[in-house]
Amino acid sequence: xxxxxxxxxxxxxxxxxxxxxxxxxxxxxxxxxxxxxxxxxxxxxxxxxxxxxxxxxxxxxxxxxxxxxxxxxxxxxxxxxxxxxxxxxxxxxxxxxxxxxxxxxxxxxxxxxxxxxxxxxxxxxxxxxxxxxxxxxxxxxxxxxxxxxxxxxxxxxxxxxxxxxxxxxxxxxxxxxxxxxxxxxxxxxxxxxxxxxxxxxxxxxxxxxxxxxxxxxxxxxxxxxxxxxxxxxxxxxxxxxxxxxxxxxxxxxxxxxxxxxxxxxxxxxxxxxxxxxxxxxxxxxxxxxxxxxxxxxxxxxxxxxxxxxxxxxxxxxxxxxxxxxxxxxxxxxxxxxxxxxxxxxxxxxxxxxxxxxxxxxxxxxxxxxxxxxxxxxxxxxxxxxxxxxxxxxxxxxxxxxxxxxxxxxxxxxxxxxxxxxxxxxxxxxxxxxxxxxxxxxxxxxxxxxx
Length: 450
Prior knowledge:
Jelly Rolls; five-stranded antiparallel beta sheet; 6 helices; globular; disordered N terminus
């Protein structure tokens, strides 16, 4: 693969979320004449606007990832038929969890009655209705999903992204200078240049390199065989970056934690921005930032982010269903709150399964169709308690065949790698330790990319 072809693939990958959101396939200009009014037919102001405001406007508004705004009838009317097609097909709002396993508090799916309302509205001519029926347009803090932050930290410098070439992960450190521990109720990474940022993860580094964790993690290989370690280019040693704090990736929501749960930011901690930039033929600049909201009172439990990964897999050329597995065994009683699959363009599906000491097994999350353009955190409606000795087993499959339209190169042997044309297998999850009390200092998990 030539460098330019590779860069084109990365640029396409960085914007794949746009194809899932854009609704561009069937743009529907407003007709010259409205059809005769139909008695009891839904209208935008009375029936459709409340649905869009509740389920769609957080993304479909100026400055956010939705490529068109859904805040007014004038904005929405040209897209009426496309909206109908996408909601009927289940493409929008985007949601990828198998409904047969788990119930999630951030489920984006529309109830069937909302889908029926949108269909009836479009079929009846997509009329505006009485302007007096329009509910208040939702108010969003300018530039933030989480609300107005209590504190904002910017990258210390602006990074210049070249037009071409491969950009290694970039790291930027920001001292918090807090004199006391802070409890974080919500956090959001805002990137300045979405077109070039593959992901941005902010880690916590507070000087403790050897924290205990509530688990042991191991990769699982077919027939018990361990493949040789992945070759790493000279000079690219893994960097220890601390505990996962807040992440940004295409299509991902900013985390807002439930009442009584929060992440700890220790006094004097340093925030480490890990930035993954991709080139697309146009030079640019980025200076990303993170906004934090403090908890109003100390939480009942400290939230932690764990990572179950297998970094020693090999995906043969043309393989359409390569399994890759890993699992965590818990050394303390824990409660799992969220799960977050992470793969790249060959990622096909991922499943999280709890295995209990008494032999029981439950599928907590099944994502049968992974979409690189929507890196989602799945928040359980009711967190799952896993007693000491339980396992959280993660199984993923990868499609390196020509049947995968997003495959950068079906002839390549694929291993773990930072760049989008390589692959990763990570099952992130958020958890609390049942016995841990926030009245004493608790250890945070140490994270290192393999």
